[in-house]
Amino acid sequence: MQEHTIALVAHDHKKSELIKWIKTHIEVMKKCKIVATGTTGKLIASETGLEVKRYQSGPLGGDQQIGALIAEGGLTALFFFWDPLNPAPHDPDVKALLRLCSVWNVPVACNSASADLMVTSPLFLSADYHPAKPNYERVD
């Protein structure tokens, strides 16, 4: 079975919503390799018992570390519960992370409704589904 790496990220005011969502979908989460930004990853591990590879906290470069994983083709999906009502000091990093998902055609969910739809899709974690990866090499 192919290993699927997903990133779980949440702004401070959305962490409890993410934890609740993870608990609802715990059986699916157990099938994934999980990476997360620092504080969120620590909370996920302590609240759910899931194994989580933790990067730096978002404002300290964690968003960019996950962005690098996307650019290297190492991420299956991003679940980023971001807070649209409380701007973060690292907002440019957040926008860059979401932009990279679009550039590399990586599925991204930004709230529990879109996350529900993503993980309940028959395509999620399917060995037969391979999203098209854009080819940005210039051919002259």
Automatic annotation (TrEMBL):
Catalytic reaction(s) noted: dihydroxyacetone phosphate = methylglyoxal + phosphate
Organism superkingdom: Bacteria
Keyword Lyase: yes
Gene3D superfamilies registered for this protein in UniProt: Methylglyoxal synthase-like domain
Binding site for substrate: 11, 15, 37-40, 57-58, 90
Record keyword DNA repair present: no
Enzyme Commission numbers on file: 4.2.3.3
List of catalytic residues: 63 (proton donor/acceptor)
Pfam families hit by this protein: MGS (PF02142)
Broadest EC class assigned to this enzyme: lyase
GO terms for MF: methylglyoxal synthase activity
Keywords recorded for this protein, A-Z: Lyase
Chain ranges of the MGS-like domain: 1-140
SUPFAM superfamilies for the chain: Methylglyoxal synthase-like (SSF52335)
InterPro entries per the UniProt record, alphabetical: Methylgl_synth (IPR004363), Methylglyoxal_synth_AS (IPR018148), MGS-like_dom (IPR011607), MGS-like_dom_sf (IPR036914)
Family: Belongs to the methylglyoxal synthase family.
Main function: Catalyzes the formation of methylglyoxal from dihydroxyacetone phosphate.
Entry protein name: Methylglyoxal synthase
Species this protein is from: Alteromonas aquimaris
